[in-house]
Write a structure and sequence with these properties.
The structure is a homotrimer.
Chain A lengths: L6 E2 L4 E2 L4 E2 L4 E2 L4 E2 L4 E2 L3 E3 L4 E2 L4 E4 L4 H4 L7 E3 L4 E2 L4 E3 L2 E3 L4 E2 L4 E2 L4 E2 L4 E2 L4 E2 L4 E2 L4 E2 L4 E2 L4 E2 L4 E2 L4 E2 L14 E2 L4 E2 L4 E2 L4 E2 L4 E2 L4 E2 L7 E4 L4 E5 L30 H8 L1
Parallel strand pairs in A: 1-4, 2-5, 3-6, 4-7, 5-8, 6-9, 7-10, 8-11, 9-12, 10-13, 12-15, 13-16, 14-17, 15-18, 16-19, 17-20, 18-21, 19-22, 20-23, 21-24, 22-25, 23-26, 24-27, 25-28, 26-29, 27-30, 29-31
Antiparallel strand pairs in A: 31-32
């Protein structure tokens, strides 16, 4: 069912069972796969893919008051890849080249920059600000109000919490600075500030602020060294800051990180 | 496809692709969103919302023996909000004002009281008893046979286990008493009893019974104090018992907790 | 929509909204439930069940280059039970009697043996080798390249990681030997080798190789004893090796483990 008021671009593929509601704008060359649902007031950039059964422009809380879908625009930039079963709420803005895994949830009032990725089962709780080139692997939980800066990596089963005396009405979300790496299964306690280029170890419970370049491991989390002590397990060379060694999908992938930094930093 | 034997109330909204099978009862003013599936023998209370692609009355194990859906009624009370992708099995009973997030699974032989909530990706394994006003945040795993009393809070990535020598045939589930708060990423080991008004810290591995009002943290979990030692990080005032400070959605929200307790306790 | 080039066996049930694309082979007595999607080049063995909204033969990465579904066959053996919302990629081979929970993801280039199970929300990241009679409970994350041998048990929220200096291009996946048991919430660090019949405790962070029959617990994980020290909490008898006490669904269920071992070991 495609609403007559929807603006559908050139060369858009629409598979069986797709729903496109009123006041939707679909850019050129988009691909709407089987049974995806695009609710009112969604703008989807050109060259985007929406997987089966995904829901764009999901109802915000006020829908349930009287079953009326108020105006909560969702804007997604060009070249998005949204895999099956993703649910992205209204009142949300996402940049270009966005990629999700399957069964992702992104709630209202979230802003996500360009070239960012949210893996399978990721759960973004709303009111979040996520920068550019942020890579969240599978099954990451980003609590309401979390702020994640550019070039941050988040690995599976990490949780960013926000309530230091639950249940309460006072949220103190986590903030993660540029280039930080949060390993698998880390729990970041409410209000902690995770410094630039820091490294949080697998399974760490982060109780307090993490300085720039620090390595924190364990439960309770303790700072054990700086990242310049972490070596490649084969070559013995320094691994961090990681942008010198990892380029795939990054803006410096066709150049040297230092060269890129001088031109863009 | 709506079965002719289904009883559909007044003023029910049925969106495209909805399936309602035989012997289903849908109360007045319900809203069945795109492509939700209501299998046989489901009774859904008035004023309820069922999100896209949700499945109510999911097959129990005996279906797979010979592909016959035996009689396993699912009864859901009035004013339910069941978000997209939820799967709720037959032989289950749920009270009024039930709310779920997305992609929730609730298996057979589970009883859930009134005003309870299961967040996105929640996974309830069956044979569970869950009380009234229980709030499970996203991605909570409630093992088979777990018993959770009224007014309990459970935060993301908490797991209630049930097998102390896996794999075995002897399940010893967890029991959680009223007003307890289980923080993010806690693992409750098989058979532990979590006392009234206790507080389990983030990432705690709870190995043994937790007394009333106790605070347990760490891996292995240790009792470090009572909840009266936990203060608001801004005001310095006592935070627990939490009902004195948190009222949203609770039955004492328009009164004082002590007044309510005297009248209802 | 059933493609005319699909080969559908005898006595196949096809519910409303099912999609079967070109070059698909469906064996006799299969049951394709509401709205499941079987993409090109899938072969599904006889007597299998595919739940609502499941996707078989999901696109591999090369689809997104030019929106062409290249040839990536998915082969699933007889008697599969694939519950709703599962997504299984192309270039994958799965043996007989495979069972999944809901909302499972299995990515490309994975091989799974016979009689194995992946529980609800399981996330297998591709390039994995999983043996026979492997039981993964709900919400297990199996990182790219992980190798799991026969008769292994994996409990909820366990993560097998693969990158020791993230982000990097050098994956060192985990390998788990026969009969090992990995309890709830364990994190297995990159490259660790988990020995035969070992037992990893709930919430353990496994940093180094685990010897045969060892018990490892805690964060950081430490070997505390051998499995012969673990007793049944009621009878006081030895529990491990578990095949002597647990037979359900195992090939020795109608005989004695030692007898079976002599004939098959």
């Amino acid at each position: 069912m495609i609403s007559k008021s929807a603006l559908i671009g050139q060369n858009v593929t629409v598979k069986e069972g797709v729903v496109v509601e009123d006041n939707v704008v679909i850019g050129d060359n988009c691909y709407l796969d089987y049974g995806c649902i695009i609710r009112k007031n969604v703008t989807l950039g050109a060259d985007s893919y929406v997987g089966p059964q995904s829901i764009l422009g999901e109802f915000c809380a006020d829908f349930y008051e009287n079953r009326a879908n108020k105006t909560h625009p969702l804007i997604i930039g060009e070249k998005a890849t949204i895999r099956s079963g993703a649910v992205i709420y209204g009142s949300t803005e996402i940049g270009v080249d966005f990629i999700t895994g399957h069964h992702v949830t992104i709630r209202e009032n979230t802003k996500i920059g360009n070239h960012s990725r949210i893996g399978t089962l990721g759960d973004i709780q709303g009111d979040c600000i996520i920068g550019n080139y942020v890579s969240a692997h599978s099954n990451v939980h980003i609590g309401k109000g979390t702020k994640i800066h550019d070039y941050v990596w988040v690995f599976p089963y990490t949780v960013f919490t926000n309530d230091s005396t639950p249940p309460s009405n006072e949220l103190t979300p986590v903030e993660v600075e540029e280039y930080a790496v949060i390993s698998t299964g880390a729990i970041c306690l409410p209000g902690v500030h995770i410094g630039k280029r820091s490294l949080i170890g697998a399974g760490a419970v982060v109780l307090k602020d993490v300085p720039e370049n620090a390595v924190v491991v364990g439960n309770p989390g303790k700072q054990i060294c700086d990242t310049d002590k972490i070596k490649n397990h084969i070559t013995g060379e320094n691994v961090y800051p990681w942008p010198y060694h990892f380029k795939r999908g990054m803006p410096w992938q066709d150049t040297d990180y230092d060269v890129w930094l001088k031109e863009n930093g």
